[in-house]
Amino acid sequence: MAKKAKKQRHEDGARAARPDKGGGRRAGGTPATVALTAAGVAYTVHSYDHDPSHPSYGEEAAEAMGVSPDRVFKTLVADVDGALTVAVVPVAGQLDLKALAAAAGGKRAAMADPALAERTTGYVRGGISPLGQRKKLPTVLDDSAALHETICVSAGRRGLEVELSPDDLAKLTDAVLAPIGRA
After folding, report:
1. Across all residues in the chain, what is the average pLDDT?
2. 4-38: string of b/e by CB count within 10 Å (b at 16+)?
3. Are 177 and 145 in contact (CB under 8 A)?
4. Model-level pTM?
């Protein structure tokens, strides 16, 4: 049976998160939704009941929200020449590490240690958002995001996604757009 996604509208026209029962809680939502609200960006929060046994956080989100996996983007943390870098790619594909290294101005990239990614961003794996991170990291957004009016990314915890325009995401994260995803 498909899980139902829930939405809430924020008073300023944007939609806001339901109260967060997990870690990383701030008044009014997660650090990601707090950052979006502070920036005055229009966004929609989609919440759903996370199934810990699902094999893919991103695919689970797309299924629960009834959104194409091409519009749901996962946030990955990689090490590019010794510097942590955020890669945001569609859940329907994979990250091309060579392309990420080139887009970030480096020579070599590898996936970051998950514990280091969690400590640096302030989020847990499966709930890492490109927004509201503890330490702002260089960010590369797959250029396929520009094909969509809105995309979904983690809102800062498992079972919570935020939908916003790719332009707003790129501006708020100072992201470089580059072809870093592959099917």
Report:
1. 86
2. ebeeeebeeebbbbeebeeebeeeebbbbbbbbbe
3. yes
4. 0.83
